[in-house]
Every structure is written in C-alpha cells, then in structure tokens.
Amino acid sequence: MFRLLTSCWSRLKTTEETQRHVAIIIIGLDNSSKTVLVEAFQRVSVYDLKGDMQGREIWPNYYAQAHGLVFVLDSSDWERMQEVKVLLPNLLSDERVAGKPILLLANKQDKTGALPPGDITDYLLLERLMNENKSPCQVEPCSVIKDLQRRSHQPIVDGLHWLLSAIREKYEELCTHQQPLPPTIAASRGTRGFEERSLADRCRVASVSFATQMGMSKENRQHVGQHSMEPKPLKSILLKEGVRIRPKKNVSVTFALDEPMEEAKGQKENGHLGLRGDVTGQSLMKPLEPVTFNRELKRKMKEHQKKHLISLL
Ligand SMILES: Nc1nc2c(ncn2[C@@H]2O[C@H](COP(=O)(O)OP(=O)(O)OP(=O)(O)O)[C@@H](O)[C@H]2O)c(=O)[nH]1
Fold first, then answer.
1. CB contact at 8 A, 86 and 54
2. For residue 36, what are the domain limits?
C-alpha cells in the first residue's frame, strides 16, 4: 500500500525525537473523493466524514478534536463550487476551526474542465477567508485516483507534508484548543458494529489502531461512492497484514505517530498554490504564483449564480 504518510513523517523530523498524536479531519462535499484519499493515510487520526447534507451536520462534532483539516473538492464540478463557496465561510469562521491549518485538495484534476487552483482560490475568495480567520491554507491540485494508481503521490504527499509542518509549527497551541469528542461519539469509538439512531451515532465512529502499512481491496473500492442515509455496512477499506479491517463511514482510524518530526519545509515552488496564514494577523495569504482568472469560468459562475438565485425566488 501507499507510503504516503510514511514519507511525510520521515520528512518531518524534529531535533527532539518526540512522539505526537495528530488529528486531522477530512471534509468536503459528497463525491469529492474523501474516502479514496483516506486509503492513503497512515499514522494519523483520520475522520472520514460523509459530505452529503446530513453528513455535514456531523462535521462540527469533530472540529475541536482536529489539529488540522483536509478539505477535498471536486475541481471539475463547477456547479457545486457554489455550494462550497457558501459552506466555506461558515466552516472557517467556526471558532473550533479558525486558526487551524487547512489543506484544500483541488481534486479530480484529471477530468476535462477541471478548474486550476488559482481559479478555485479566486472564486472561493480563499485569500480573504484565510486572512479573516487566521488559518494557514494550502491549495493542492491533485487527482487522488490517478496519483494513487500511478503511485506518484507527490501532490498529495506535498499537501500532507505542508499540513503536518503547519501543525507542527503551532502544535502546542493547537493542542491547547483541542477538545475531546462529544461524549456520545467518544463512547462509540472502538466499538465497531455500534449502531444507534442519534446524530452522533450516525457518525458511527470506529477506532482502529494500525502499526503497519495497509492496503485496499478491489472489492472495497467498489463500495466507494455509495450513498445512503441508512446505516451502511462497514466499509472495508483497509487491510492489515491480510486481515481485513472494516471501518465504517465516518470512521476514526487512529495510528501511532512513532516517527519524529523535522523542521518545517519552506514554501513550495510550482504546480500548486501556497497560501499561508499567520496567527499574528499580518500578511496571511501569499499566492506563490500569479493567478489568472479564467473568463469563461467567471461567465459560467455568474450564469449559475443567476439561475441559483432565480430558483430560490
Ligand atoms: N476522475 C476522478 N474520479 C475520482 C477521483 N478521486 C475519486 N474519484 C471518484 O469520485 C467518486 C467519489 O469518491 P468517494 O471517495 O466515495 O467520495 P466521498 O467524498 O468519500 O463521498 P461521500 O462519502 O459521499 O461524502 C468515486 O466514484 C471515485 O472513484 C479522481 O482523482 N479523479
């Protein structure tokens, strides 16, 4: 299986060989690829939260627990970009999220018409949002599926590396703000098969510890993309030494962080947009490359907004 976080962790070495636990939540609209991405994560607590309307109600339960966030979006679905645009300000201004580093994965870049990161940044007014909420942000264009298939995970590795470095930079501070999961969710951790009807239980959190590398079966991949509001069978997405672990949707996968972290890498060069925040409140966002807004996209967005407004009236 992938060596994604292994390579991230190995690049994140500190002078003091400390062991740290890092919690990251992965969110984004439904069908944006969160589950596919989660396969690639190791040695961090990953909460794979559903992205449909009902699933989004649950996200806030995890905000306080997270040191950082990965927001996944489908760059080829410009119609739903409007939905993200409405959602992001609420997310980023939430007091449990503000100030935390956010990796925005502009996924599905392999698809025709996928928006480049610069256009996405502009359209979502990311720079302004990041400045207002004092959260460091990095936009990373990627194709989760293609990158993982080719085993060339570079954009994802770079993004995760950035996120972990950003977390490391203010780890102590982030830990101060970290709060435990709400009792109902915490109680369900580690109890696979646990099912109830409350909001928290819809999270169906399972906690699984992994010490070794994991893989995903072909059969499991077929489950990816299924949507239902009913409790789903455990989604088998991970393998450990041949023994299948079947975490559910909204699963918490806890890994031991047993590799030391190193000095944060500097800003990256080309191929993505690096946007940084600063808790002191100055020069929070800094695009690394000039952003040219696509006129055609702008026109489409306007058209779409008009339609959207009309449909609301
Ligand atoms: N073209 C393309 N398709 C992708 C890529 N990544 C994922 N997909 C597809 O996108 C669909 C959605 O992936 P999921 O990982 O299930 O999406 P999700 O965000 O977990 O969705 P919810 O669980 O409903 O919130 C699947 O059919 C994937 O095969 C990519 O990089 N390119």
1. no
2. 4-312
